[in-house]
Specification:
This protein has 108 residues and is an all-alpha fold. Helix content is 80%, strand content 0%. The protein has one domain.
């Protein structure tokens, strides 16, 4: 999916990119930003987080390994298979949540 997004959206023409932004990105990303904002407000996530930047960070952590696989896969010797995807998802989840969780939450 990340390679498809890169090819068909990021490097596409302005019309295709605008269509993707309006149909998908403007609908989904604000929902995720809102969820982060609610968790920050509730004290579950660190108060100093910027919900919008948290979405951007999570997207980068999730997408980058797939986009850079032709190089990074060779350097770090990984294949884009189900086992790798599962390990990456678990690792990224732990890394992101441990970095964003409020201090009281992180201690438990």
């Amino acid at each position: 999916m990340p390679a498809l997004l890169l090819r068909e959206v990021v490097t596409a023409g302005p019309a295709e990119r605008a269509r993707f932004v309006e149909r998908f990105a403007r609908r989904g990303l604000p929902l995720l930003q809102g969820l982060f904002a609610k968790e920050i407000e509730a004290g579950a996530l660190r108060a100093d987080l910027d919900a919008r930047l948290a979405v951007l960070s999570l997207a980068g952590m999730s997408i980058f390994p797939f986009l850079t696989h032709p190089v990074m896969g060779k350097v770090f010797d990984y294949e884009l298979d189900e086992a790798f995807a599962k390990r990456l998802a678990e690792h990224t989840t732990r890394l992101f949540l441990d970095g964003t969780r409020a201090a009281a939450e992180a201690a438990s």
